[in-house]
Amino acid sequence: METSTPTFTPDWTPRGHMTISVYVNGPIETNTYVAVSGDEAVVIDPAWDGEALAERLRSEHPDVKLKGIICTHGHADHVGGVAGMRRAFPSVPFYLSEPDVPMVDANIAHQRSSWGIDTPSPGAPDCPLAEGDVIAVGDVQLQALATPGHTPGGMTLFAATEEGPVAFVGDTLFPGSHGRTDLVGGDDVAIVRSLAKLGTALPPATLCLVGHGSSTTIGQELATNPFMQVGL
Prior knowledge:
With 232 residues, the chain is of the alpha/beta class. The chain has helices at 50-60, 76-79, 82-88, 104-115, 188-201, 218-224, 226-231, and strands spanning 19-25, 30-37, 40-44, 65-70, 94-97, 127-129, 134-137, 140-146, 155-161, 164-170, 173-174, 177-178, 207-210, 216-217. It starts with 18 loop residues before the first strand and ends with a helix.
């Protein structure tokens, strides 16, 4: 297998400060992240009950302005709270990669028919997210890398901060493994290439905040993840 070479080289230069909160929510215990820098914030993967997430954000960060609602991919368990958050913050843009837009409603329907779990459609994104896009939050820059495989349009958001590098990897990477590829749009070859891409494009110290469960680092995955090793 060929090693994946990123078409976009993220900037590793540390700049800015960011604090991150995680809310585990929804029937599949999805990690929703709130990243705050200065007086600005973004919400990443609002999975469930967007109105409750919005209320919690306002309660815990009353002086912070929400700059964006970002989804790493279009699966129902990662977009389920978007509609409610958009109602609570109607002027805040919603980011999702273009390749995942057509699959969102179909995946919501699949979740409903397979597991009896219903979530509202998030609607069309205001800002289609593509590799190389940079979303400024306070004095931090979130840099988008395309990491398909779990879904066609899976994205990773990387920031080099003064506290250390961090990446929101969605369901592309899990400790010692990767996200499912047996759902519609999944691709075994693509996800292994995406793992290799993360292993080469990001610093080993990068804290990887995953879509479900515990975090890891690029260095740890380089040493122990057989799928990343195969990709490389």
